[in-house]
């Protein structure tokens, strides 16, 4: 699942699990009536097209038809997480697991929420269960979540190990590349930080995230490369006028222009 603007890369961590669940429902969800199954499948298409409001509408209809369908509950959690409603996402992921306790994808996604909420022990317990499931195929997502967990604990070397494992299978993840750069940045290894942050830039632009620009500019700033830092901040503001880091980028530009390095 963990953005972890990080929501675009979060979608990468969640989508494969969602599709797996949705496809499984064709044979596993015997209690669902035809109408609930139809609305669930329609929701799949909307999520693939990133139309989350319509996906949510279809899933809520499916839930009304069959509230005890764990796949409906899981996919509701995914949509709410993508809509940045972690509270509702957590509620539906827990409901899914109460209905079907072996849903490893759901454990991975719920762990991401616990990481964001700084409930580290709960996240670690779930991730341990995820990694012990030898049938689970989306290990890049689990490794990414483990990396984020260790990053938040300021265990940067351990975080790097997990992020590198995640990249072995999925090299086009803005979130993971940025966090690798941030690990080196926290250790004041600015060249290594910039190496990963610059690699992340085209991926992050495609995913509409300003994270690589912001932390790349910070790395240049801390490395006392004033002109490159200024250029990076200005480019961030131009490319992402509504980005999450625009205000901070403008503040940093003001500092640089005043010469307060």
Structure report:
- With 261 residues, the protein is an all-alpha fold.
- It has 2 domains: 1-169, Tetratricopeptide repeat domain (Serine Threonine Protein Phosphatase 5, Tetratricopeptide repeat); 171-261, Tetratricopeptide repeat domain (Serine Threonine Protein Phosphatase 5, Tetratricopeptide repeat), CATH 1.25.40.
- It has helices at residues 7-28, 34-48, 52-65, 70-82, 86-99, 104-116, 120-132, 139-152, 156-169, 174-186, 190-206, 211-222, 226-239, 246-257.
Offer a quick outline of the entry.
With 261 residues, the protein is mainly alpha-helical.
Task: Using brief descriptors, characterize the structure shown.
77% helix; mainly alpha; Serine Threonine Protein Phosphatase 5, Tetratricopeptide repeat; 261 residues; globular
Main beta sheet strand tally, sense and closure: none
Q: What's the Cα radius of gyration?
A: 20 Å
What is the rounded distance between the termini? Answer: 38 Å
CATH structural architecture of the largest domain:
Alpha Horseshoe
CATH hierarchy class name of the largest domain = Mainly Alpha
Helix content: over 70%
Alpha-beta content class: mainly alpha
Number of H- or I-type helical stretches: 14
Written as H for each helix and E for each strand, in order along the chain, the element string is: HHHHHHHHHHHHHH
Name given to the CATH homologous superfamily of the largest domain: Tetratricopeptide repeat domain
**Unreliable segments (pLDDT under 50, ≥5 consecutive)?**
1-8, 15-29
Number of separate structural domains: 2
Residue-averaged pLDDT, rounded? 87
């Amino acid at each position: 699942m963990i953005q972890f603007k990080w929501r675009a890369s979060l979608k990468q961590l969640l989508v494969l699990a969602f599709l797996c669940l949705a496809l499984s429902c064709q044979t596993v969800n015997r209690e669902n009536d035809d109408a609930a199954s139809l609305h669930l499948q329609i929701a799949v298409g909307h999520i693939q097209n990133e139309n989350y409001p319509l996906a949510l509408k279809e899933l809520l209809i499916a839930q009304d038809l069959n509230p005890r369908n764990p796949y409906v509950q899981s996919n509701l959690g995914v949509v709410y997480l993508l809509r940045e409603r972690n509270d509702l996402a957590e509620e539906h992921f827990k409901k899914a697991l109460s209905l079907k306790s072996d849903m490893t994808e759901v454990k991975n996604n719920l762990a991401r929420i616990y990481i964001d909420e700084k409930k580290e022990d709960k996240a670690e317990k779930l991730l341990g269960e995820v990694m012990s499931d030898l049938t689970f195929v989306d290990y890049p997502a689990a490794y990414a979540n483990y990396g984020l967990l260790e990053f938040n604990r300021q265990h940067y070397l351990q975080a790097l190990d997990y992020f590198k494992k995640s990249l072995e299978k999925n090299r086009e993840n803005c979130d993971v590349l940025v966090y690798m750069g941030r690990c080196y940045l926290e250790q004041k290894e600015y060249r290594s930080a910039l190496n990963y942050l610059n690699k992340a830039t085209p991926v992050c632009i495609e995913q509409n995230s300003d994270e690589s620009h912001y932390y790349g500019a910070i790395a240049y700033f801390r490395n006392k490369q004033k002109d490159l830092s200024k250029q990076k901040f200005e480019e961030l503001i131009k490319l992402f006028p509504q980005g999450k880091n625009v205000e901070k980028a403008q503040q940093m530009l003001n500092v640089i222009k005043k010469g307060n390095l």
